[in-house]
From TrEMBL:
Designated name of the protein: 5-methylthioadenosine/S-adenosylhomocysteine deaminase
Kinase found in the keyword field: no
Primary role: Catalyzes the deamination of 5-methylthioadenosine and S-adenosyl-L-homocysteine into 5-methylthioinosine and S-inosyl-L-homocysteine, respectively. Is also able to deaminate adenosine.
Reaction catalysed by this enzyme: S-methyl-5'-thioadenosine + H2O + H(+) = S-methyl-5'-thioinosine + NH4(+); S-adenosyl-L-homocysteine + H2O + H(+) = S-inosyl-L-homocysteine + NH4(+)
Positions with a binding annotation for substrate: E103, H196, E226, D311
Cofactors required: Zn(2+)
Comment on bound cofactor: Binds 1 zinc ion per subunit.
Enzymatic class: hydrolase
Similarity section: Belongs to the metallo-dependent hydrolases superfamily. ATZ/TRZ family.
Length: 446
């Protein structure tokens, strides 16, 4: 081997185990991942890498499993500041009597900036490299994610009623279109349309959302069939299931992501499958609000793309996607009455490649394959609580939690090193979070 056959690259990660997601169901050992610029240049056995690459930096991960960064496909980042504020309530009481009044009182540009940074710190620290957000002041969330170097789908809110971000549908749509124009084509930020739910958005704005999506290619994300009440109430008032109404309005399709879907009939499944609509499963929020459970295995068997999200920290109450994966795998087995439902490898795919599919970026994200973007995480499996290791995939799903994540890179840029965030000043953030907590506690006491 002569020196001119050796390729220069930026970073080499030496991994004890590697789960590439593609090919599926595989655990490799003693692998090197080579990063050049923003992309994965190669994934190959360490012994071969010695002969083929010379890098300016090598990271040794002798007790770790390396895998693609997790994709959290649904949340409301700044709601992290409302974590634990209103627990043990069903959805509509939680929203009407606690969350919406609190949002009316506290949400401002600064609240969104501080809450979003808190959420990003937690997500990065627990292995998420891409997240989807649906919340107020999306222009601030987009800028903060971009400045931090996190990938994010930013859904602007669309509702029938006024909020702190807009006077009504016309203003939401015009501000939203400006957001799409500002970020269209960005590598990190994917602007999208976020009609809140069928019960808060009427036919006119939904039709305009579809037209905007068609014009710009922006994706649509909507809460759908979250509770039995939502479906029963729609049948009562409109004579049809919410998903049927969305189908008639042209909302369903490959650019649309339906969040929750705990109430699903065979005809709903047919609509989702025939239109190529994606489903975002949020099991912990659904459990905590007693909303119901999405039949994950059934949907996947019908070829529907299932991705996963935490929802906001006010209904979860954390943004640790490894915890969500574990819950999803457990719950899927009970719902399907089949212990083989949502296996460990399937659950990992749901949280990576399937998220990338929902974003339309499966050719760039979601697996460790040469040519894809270098969004990579490492999880330390040396903790005594998760010994011995027979199958790292099993441990990641059934025994792990996100705090075992020690490293992450997004676009080849280190975001977590030895368990520490590289781009967020955590002590400064904690001061701002405590300020908000003081204000919120004060108001609750009044
Ligand atoms: C239009 S901005 C998002 C809006 O959604 C609220 N929200 C948070 N979690 C849920 C949920 O599980 N179902 C419905 N709505 C939810 C959030 O508080 C914002 O007002
Ligand atoms: Zn939500």
């Amino acid at each position: 081997m002569t020196a001119d056959t050796i390729t220069a690259a930026d970073i080499r990660i030496n991994a004890r185990w590697l789960i590439p997601i593609e090919p599926s169901g595989v655990v490799l050992e003693h692998q090197a991942v080579i990063i050049q610029g923003t992309k994965i240049a190669a994934v190959l056995p360490m012994a071969e890498a010695d002969h083929e690459f010379r890098t300016r930096e090598t990271i040794e991960l002798p007790h770790h499993v390396v895998m693609p960064g997790l994709i959290n496909m649904h949340g409301h980042a700044a709601m992290s500041l409302f974590r634990g504020m209103a627990d043990d309530l069903p959805l509509m009481t939680w929203l009407n009597d606690h969350i919406w009044p609190a949002e009316g009182r506290f949400i401002s540009e600064q609240f969104i900036a501080d809450g979003t940074q808190l959420a990003m710190a937690e997500m990065l620290r627990t292995g998420t490299t891409t997240f989807s957000d649906m919340y107020f002041f999306p222009e601030i969330v987009a800028q903060m994610a971009h400045d931090t170097g996190m990938r994010a789908q930013i859904c602007f809110p669309l509702l029938d009623f006024p909020t702190v971000w807009g006077s009504g549908p016309d203003e939401y749509l015009s501000k939203g279109e400006a957001l799409i124009d500002a970020w269209q084509g960005d590598d990190y930020i994917m602007p999208a349309i976020g009609p809140h739910a069928p019960y808060t958005v009427s036919d006119g704005p939904l039709t305009e959302a579809v037209a905007l999506s068609k014009r710009t290619g922006a994706r649509i994300q909507i809460h759908l069939h979250e509770t039995e009440f939502e479906v029963a109430d729609a049948i009562d008032k409109q004579g049809k299931r919410p998903i049927e109404r969305l189908a008639e309005l042209g909302v369903l399709g490959t650019n649309t992501q339906c969040v929750h879907m705990t109430q699903i009939s065979d005809s709903d499944i047919a609509l989702l499958a025939d239109t190529g609509t994606h489903v975002i499963h949020c099991p912990e929020s659904n459990l905590k609000l007693a909303s119901g459970l999405c039949p994950a295995q059934k949907l996947m068997e019908r070829g529907i793309n299932l991705a996963i999200g935490t929802d906001g920290a006010a209904s979860n109450n954390d943004l640790d996607l490894f915890g969500e994966i574990r819950t999803a795998a457990m719950v899927a087995k009970v719902v399907a009455n089949d212990a083989a439902a949502l296996s460990a490898h399937q659950a990992l795919q749901v949280a990576t490649l399937n998220g990338a599919r929902a974003l339309g970026r499966e050719h760039e994200l979601g697996s460790l394959v040469a040519g894809k973007l270098a969004d990579i995480i490492a999880v330390d499996l040396s903790d005594p609580f998760i010994q011995p290791v027979y199958d790292p995939a099993s441990h990641l799903v059934y025994s792990n939690h996100g705090r075992a994540v020690t490293h992450s890179w997004i676009n080849g840029v280190p975001q977590v090193q030895d368990g520490k965030l590289t781009r967020i000043d955590v002590p400064d953030l904690m001061l701002r979070v405590e300020d908000w907590a003081r204000k919120i506690r004060q108001q609750q006491a009044d």
